[in-house]
Each structure stands twice: as C-alpha cells, then as structure tokens.
Amino acid sequence: MSARDTDWDGVRLHVVTGKGGTGKTTVAAALALALAAEGRRVLLVEVEGRQGIAQLFDCPPLPYEERRVAVAPGGGDVYALAIDTEEALIEYLEMFYNLKRAGKAMTRLGIVDFVTTIAPGLRDVILTGKTSESVRRRDKYGSFIYDAVVMDAPPTGRITKFLNVNDEVSGLAKVGPVRNHADTVMKVVRSPETAVHFVTLLEEMPVQETMDGMNELAEVGLSVGAVIVNMEHAPVLSEDDRARAASGELDTDEIVRGVKAAGLERDAEPIAEVLAAEAGDHARRTALQRREKERLESIDRPRYTLPLVSDGMDLAGLYDLAAALREQGAA
C-alpha cells in the first residue's frame, strides 16, 4: 500500500451530513470508495434505516451485519452496515447487562420503540456507539480491523444533537453503563481521529444550513471537516452569452438559423424560443452557483466539488465521484 498525503491523515471516522436532498448518502458512499483505494479496508455505516447504501451499490437490502459491497481501485474493500436500532439495543443489553433474551422479549412487546421514543437520546447513543465500536475494533494482532469508517449520518439540522451524546444522556443517567458508554463514544467523536463533513448544493438554503451546522458543531467542541459541494452544474455558455441570456438579449434569429442547420426547419422558431428560455434559466443558475460559492469561501475548511451526473447515479458514477474526491485530496 503506497503512502499518500491527504487532507485527513490520521482521521479514521468520517461523519457525512447534509441537508435532505443534497445527496449525502451518495457522497458518503463515494468517500468510502475513495478511502478504500490502494488496498485499504473501509466500513460504510448507515444509521437512518433507509437502505440507501444497498440501492447505490445495487445489492440486496443489508442485514444487521457487515457485508462487503464493493472493491475499490487498487484492490481495497468497502464493507457496509445498516444499523438496526432494535438489534443494536439487544446487542447493547447483552454487552452491558447480559440481557439478550430479555431484549428479544422487549422487541416482541414493542417496549424497544417505547423506550427509544421517551428517551430519544438513548437511540442516538446506540447508533453512535455501534459506529465508534467499529472505529476502535482491533484484530488479534492489535491492528485496526478498518482503516477508516464512514458514517452516513442524519441531516444537518440534527447532526449536533445526534453526535453530542453526552448532553443527550445527561438527563437519563449520571452513572452506570449508559453513562460510561456515552463517555466512550464521546472520546471517539471528540478525538482528532473524527471529522464531520458537510454536503451541500450551491443553493441558498443548503449553503446556509451548512454554515449554521458548522458553527453549531464548533460551539460544542466537535471537529468540523470539509465542505463537499455536490451536483455542480458546469457552465455550457460563455460568460458573455450568459449575460445576454439572463437579460433576454440573445439573438433569437441566430438560434433559429442554428436549429434549421440541424435539420429542424419546420419547428425552428418554437424550438428557438424554448432554447432561449433554457439558456436564461442556465444563466441564472450559474449566477446563483457563483454567489453561493463566494459565501462558502468564508469557511476556512477544505472544500471539494463534485459534478452533476446528468445520466443519473449508478455504480460507475459512484466510482467517478470517488476518483474526483481523491484527485482533490480528500482521500
């Protein structure tokens, strides 16, 4: 395995968050592939129960166990785990209270849902606890099982509360296994080995949520990672043409001539009108992207940009995004 300088040398837990609709699950999967390149072993963890990872890697729904889902460039492996809250709670009860059989009975009675509803902080402790255990786990020779762990985390609006489990359990337990477990989790989350990355689109609301979320994390002392701009639309018109398109001053006669030259003489004028309108939309979107990029430049953190995959996301597109992340120094 060759040495490689990255922006995140020493980081072993990569938490990926973002406003809904920004593609954070896709970015988390691409980051896992990028980190696994050159013979590394990476675990990709899903905590929201949506089976988004299975869909991306075109595999059956993931059980509550670690499964290999992809081979990275250079021979590395990506494993995936979809954490089931009930199974994780049973595992937790067995680990700390030797109550596996009781835990299964609680599941049948619906008490698990009742407990995690009245004490939602406990659910977060269980989910983050399973992930942090994966980060710390070693083989019989003392080496880490995984070179890195990537968590597809809850959305930006909930990420600080989700990760700051000590505050969440303060009203549940002052001492005992729950408290000790939360303290262990926080040692991982607050360590230099953890970074929280924010996925955003170049749109006003996602950018604002990213900036607010980073500020909230910093206020509670959690490690802020990178900004990952997803689905950037590449300009297809020159700057001058975009300016004319935005102001409605494109030469429609020229567009009509181009349409006719393409063999569409019969409907050239209506087609030209549609193209002029699309050019105006494109110019306005490009201007919006530029404005939001300037806002993100005020954030003193690494920033990576991923292109819009126009044909829809598939496994090949995921590998392309992973390559783009590596080229920019993310892995």
TrEMBL record:
Gene3D superfamilies: P-loop containing nucleotide triphosphate hydrolases. Residues 13-187 form the ArsA/GET3 Anion-transporting ATPase-like domain. Coiled coil: none annotated. This is Anion-transporting ArsA/GET3 family ATPase. The lineage of its organism: Bacteria, Bacillati, Actinomycetota, Actinomycetes, Streptosporangiales.
